[in-house]
Amino acid sequence: MARQLEAVYEHGVLRPLEPLALPEHQHVRLTLEEKPARLSWKSTESVNERREELQWLAKESGPYAGEWVAIEGPRLVAHGAKLAEVRAAAKAAGAGDPIFARVSSDTDAFGGW
Fold first, then answer.
1. What is the spatial distance between Cα 27 and Cα 11, in angstroms, rounded to a whole number?
2. Is 104 left (phi over 0), alpha (psi -120 to 50) or beta?
3. 75 — phi, psi (to 5°)?
4. Dihedral angle at the C-alpha atoms of 80, 82, 87, 93, nearest 10 degrees?
5. Which tens digits make up the pLDDT trace of 28-75?
6. Whole-structure pTM value
7. Phi, psi at residue 90, to the nearest 5°?
8. Per-residue DSSP letters for the chain?
9. Residues 6 or more apart whose Cβ sits within 8 Å of residue 56
10. How far apart are CA 49 and CA 36, in angstroms?
11. Mean pLDDT, all residues of the chain
């Protein structure tokens, strides 16, 4: 009988993530399908925390209240009333990976906690 299950490789041993109803010393055939590892503090891959974009939103977004903005790094790439238009303008401006945010205005409603 064939079945699929998840396992984790730890300290040289594959450990199933669910109990197996197998007798001791039962031989099985494994087919491995590797999944990408999750990022963790041990990862060597850099993580883009978007600090520059968040700083821009905190300090520079006031004049754009009620609008959508596209920010890449420390610069405003595009802004406008409709997200689709801002997205298109950012693409036309050659932005590679901007973040999009709607800048709240004083008239925005807040639902509370």
1. 21
2. beta
3. -125, 145
4. -30
5. 888 888 777 666 666 666 666 788 898 999 999 999 999 999 999 999
6. 0.55
7. -65, -40
8. ------EEEETTEEEESS-----TT----------PPPP-TT--S-----HHHHHHHHHH-GGGTTSEEEEETTEEEEEES-HHHHHHHHHHTT-SS-EEEEPP-TT------
9. 71, 74, 75, 76
10. 20
11. 84
What the block records as the tokens of 18 is 């669910």
Distance, in Å, from the CA atom of 80 to the CA atom of 33, rounded to the nearest integer, reads 45
User: What would the two tokens of residue 40 be?
Assistant: 């963790």
Cα maximum dimension of the chain = 70
pLDDT of amino acid 48: 66
Q: Both tokens of residue 5?
A: 């299950």
Structure tokens at 49: 């925390």
Q: How many angstroms from the chain centroid is the CA of residue 81?
A: 25
